[in-house]
Specification:
alpha+beta; two-stranded antiparallel sheet
Length: about 80
């Protein structure tokens, strides 16, 4: 599986993603991890899974929200791992 990470924090205009050829990365079964996805609104496909990491005084909590069948299968696989 091909995996790509994008940190969109410094993105000024979502149209910049088009110039970077962002759509090419989402082809096939590639895993694309995006930080600050709201900065790319209108140029990014609907996510399969949203991961929210929240800091706490004693560590971090992770919340997974499935947003499609692909995300559901990842969550199910993770649930089996941590059973």
């Amino acid at each position: 599986v091909r995996a790509f990470h994008f940190d969109l924090y410094r993105l000024v205009d979502p149209e910049e993603l088009e110039f970077l050829g962002i759509r090419d990365y989402f082809e096939g079964d590639a895993l694309c991890l995006l930080e600050w996805p709201q900065k790319g609104a209108g140029f990014l496909p609907k996510p399969d899974l949203t991961i929210t990491i929240t800091p706490h005084h004693n560590g971090r909590s992770v919340h997974l929200l499935s947003q499609g069948s692909r995300g559901e299968s990842w969550c199910a696989a993770l649930a089996l791992e941590f059973k």
